[in-house]
Target: CbbQ/NirQ/NorQ/GpvN family protein
Amino acid sequence: MEGATAPFYLPQGDECDVFAAAAENNLPLLLKGPTGCGKTRFVSHMAAKLGRPLYTVACHDDLSAADLIGRYLLKGGETVWVDGPLTRAVREGAICYLDEVVEARKDVTVVLHPLTDDRRILPIDRTGEELEAADGFMLVASYNPGYQNILKTLKPSTRQRFLSVAFDFPDAEREIDVVLRETGIDADRAKGLVRLANKLRALKGQDLEEGVSTRLIVYAATLVVQGMPIERAIEAAMIEPLTDDEDVKTGLLDLVTAVF
Ligand code: ADP
Model:
């Protein structure tokens, strides 16, 4: 089933084929790459193309297994069980996307293990159920290996349960295309913004922890299309989000003047 309204996604390589093959064969998929490089868009695009419902969970350090599985809630004086997004996906044969999975609490990985081997089961301790994943259920997770946090990486026993695809920012030609199609900005300024982004990315590790994401270039172009002067749009979307250090900011703004 091909969804007519799949959100626009420009492939960087053969990732759509890998996703489709993983979906076809009931294999879980891990997307590795920096924030804002298109992972979430890719998953929504593929879910629509394959005609499967999608449950997306943005993981954070307080997210526990119960948030994914479900819990008893008090409703009108009665306690009723309410499925979490993972349980719903397992029952319905949907795709469950755990964005930034390493951020979640450790008990989440325990839940993922029986779902990512050929048993494909989700034990729900609180209700005593053991759900077998419906046809079509697929687990997709993402993480950013760039964060140098030794405490927050996936354990080999978890990561070796997933097929993995590495993502990075698209090459300049593709990134210009994305910015054009996402915002409708003119080609000259799209090229300029991408050129600037690549200069800023080259500073990663020296003055900057993270480079400019494709998302931020799209934001800058959106502001420009709305009528904001380009220097101001760049400052708000591509400089301020990167650093709080005034000296670094001044240096980056000089770079802007050199490119535009
Ligand atoms: P991530 O999940 O990797 O943090 P997103 O998928 O949210 O990043 O991407 C951020 C934005 O960048 C998207 O909303 C979209 O505008 C744009 N984008 C990045 N890469 C692509 C791509 N390959 N095709 C289409 N849009 C893209």
